[in-house]
Amino acid sequence: MTIIATPTLIPHDAVGNDVRGMHRALRKSQEACIYATDYTEDGYSTPFLIDKTLLYDLIQDKSTTLIYHHSIYWPEGEEILSKARCQVILKYHNITPSEFFAPYNDMYAKICRDGREQTERLLCYPSIRLWADSLYNANELQELGGRDIAIIPPFHKIEDFQKARIDTDFAKELLQYPLNILFVGRFAPNKGHEHLLKTIACYKKKYNDDIHLHIAGSLDRSGLGSYIDYIHYWIDRLGIADLVTIYDKLSFDRLVTLYRTSHIFLLLSEHEGFCVPILEAQLNKLPIIALDRGAVSETLGNDQLFFQEIDHELFADSIYTIVHEYRFKDYLIKQGYANLERFAIDSIQRKVFSLL
């Protein structure tokens, strides 16, 4: 029996997709169940969820394996590990440094700070085995004293893009713009939205205004309202309100339509423990311009375009170059699409089975 434990399980979430994908894989050869403190119906997990009483009973059995997904502070997680007499594996997804949230939400900053402190304590549990999404995450664990860390990319659902329906009305709206620049990701302070806006402003000033930035990511108005206001302040200050659209809670078909009608994926995030939207962009044959922070260049793969420093004019120049140098654009697309082989579900599944 294998139990996958996570603090929160919600639809369309990268950690949640890893949990569900891992569970699907394990069920092919053994019994497997899921435990989560907070759960939102996701169309898959309900039949496999167990309660705390059964969890505590199962983790007393030495033949059980507990895979703990660590992505945020979870007080109950340490209680679970203290009672476990079975084999325990920690899957580390990284936790955003608290300083990104500190100007906007004290509680979010504290949760991140507590989560990163908790990481150190989790490493002290006897005989705990360590898995990480990326080399970047593994290096973080190693700096805290972790050893023998296996790198297993997260299970994902990018194959769903092959089954999606294009929203034709939405596509017509998008195709009115000569040049669509896309960013997809959580609307949070570490995601570099200010850099996206300043890059578009540089492009407008240096070249032309035949460009439109599309930002897709759920807006947390109650928790990060001041950050949303800050981004709108920059939109107004830069005079680019007519060149930017922010989408809140897009349907999957509309998200796919955005990818299919965009020309370049612009990733200027300042902290990534992995980055699933990179894979989504490469699958949809978008060239990517990226800031190399966290696991970004590692996820991008070979012969992709990324920069070590923040330089908005250079990012704008790169957009212009990709648009006008067709062979360069095609090369980035080809190499990006080839990179996806590293993250094939079958490959990830084999790594999990071999380590178990």
What's the multimeric state?
single chain
What distance lies between the first and last C-alpha atoms, to the nearest angstrom?
12 Å
If you compute it from the alpha carbons, what radius of gyration comes out, rounded to the nearest whole angstrom?
21 Å
Give the overall form. Answer: globular
Low confidence ranges: none
How helix-rich are the residues, as a percent range? 40-55%
Name given to the CATH architecture of the largest domain: 3-Layer(aba) Sandwich
Q: Class of the largest domain, according to the CATH hierarchy? A: Alpha Beta
Tell me the domain tally. 2
The CATH topology of the largest domain turns out to be Rossmann fold
Major beta-sheet overview: 6 strands, parallel
- % residues in beta strands: 15-25%
The run of helices and strands is EHEHEHEHEHEHEHEHEHEHEHEHHH
CATH superfamily of the largest domain: Glycogen Phosphorylase B
User: Numbering strands along the chain, what is their spatial order in the largest sheet?
Assistant: 2-1-3-4-5-6
The DSSP helix count reads 14
Please sum up the structure shown.
This protein has 356 residues and is α/β, with parallel strands linked by helices. It folds into two domains: 2-155, 3-Layer(aba) Sandwich (Rossmann fold), CATH 3.40.50; 159-342, Glycogen Phosphorylase B (Rossmann fold, 3-Layer(aba) Sandwich).
